[in-house]
Amino acid sequence: MSIRQTATETGYGLGALLFPTLCLNCQRTIPGGQRTPLCLPCFSDLAPTNYWELPENRVTDKFQGRLELQLGVALYFFNVGSVCQTLMHALKYYQRPEIGDELGRQLGNYLRNHPSLHDLAGVVPVPIHPRRLHQRGYNQAERIASGVASVLRVPVFPQALTRTDFKGSQTKMDRLQRVENVRNSFRPGRGNHAGQHLLLVDDVVTTGATLDFCGNLLLEHHANATLSIATLAIAE
Ligand SMILES: [Zn+2]
Q1: Mind telling me which residue stretches traverse the membrane in this protein (predicted)?
Q2: Which residues have CB atoms below 5 A from the ion given as ligand 1?
């Protein structure tokens, strides 16, 4: 029996036999040849926030008075040294865009049939800096957005926001100038989303400044639009 037959009969792809998938966190082989970033024990170490069941939570608190949200959620808690941090690093720095797809679908599963999203028109990813997009080859927020959108059966609007190059060298600026520079690098993009409910998506929410800029741009640019925010993680 050839290796190809064995692989077919056991249901494993040939690729999975030759290149077993290793868990990103513990480096053990993931049984079954599944293309998944974590083994089951490491997956169960992720800590879901359950924010989709809490109309007021730490995400909505961050934007209180800054941005009116229909729903604000994050999927997992992000701590230094946590499994969640390993996943987010791999997604951003180690060329693992499929993590965005997978966690985006998980997030989508929690948001499916959520009453606050009954009128959702589409998902808007936070754009990344063009130079970073060139280096990385993908925008992680766009991969998350497509995972969420595939489960919620709504379109992704990847052009709804654009990001331009920074002006000058950031290193010569003080903190306030830097914040202003980042704010000015976001622009409303193509498409008319007047009156639509948009779900703004990013990987991690920390201070919330970027989501705040982007959310306000969308609401200012599209008359009577409404907004929700969903991220994969929230820094504790
Ligand atoms: Zn593991």
Answers
A1: none
A2: 23, 25-26, 39, 42
For ligand 1, the distance from its centroid to the CA atom of residue 125, given in whole angstroms, is 29
- E strands along 79-216, which residues? 120-125, 161-163, 186-188, 197-205
Asked if residues 169 and 144 have their Cβ atoms less than 8 Å apart, the reply is no
- Which structural domains are found in the chain, ordered by start? 1-45 (no CATH), 47-235 (3.40.50)
Question: Which residues, at least 6 apart from 3, have a Cβ–Cβ distance to it below 8 Å?
Answer: 14, 17
Cβ distance 181 to 96 under 8 Å?
no
SS3 label, residue 198: strand
Distance CA 121, CA 102 (A): 22
Q: Does residue 16 have a pLDDT over 80? A: no
Mean predicted lDDT score pLDDT of the chain = 89
Residue 86: how many other CB atoms lie within 10 Å: 20
What pLDDT, on a 0 to 100 scale, did the predictor assign at position 167?
61
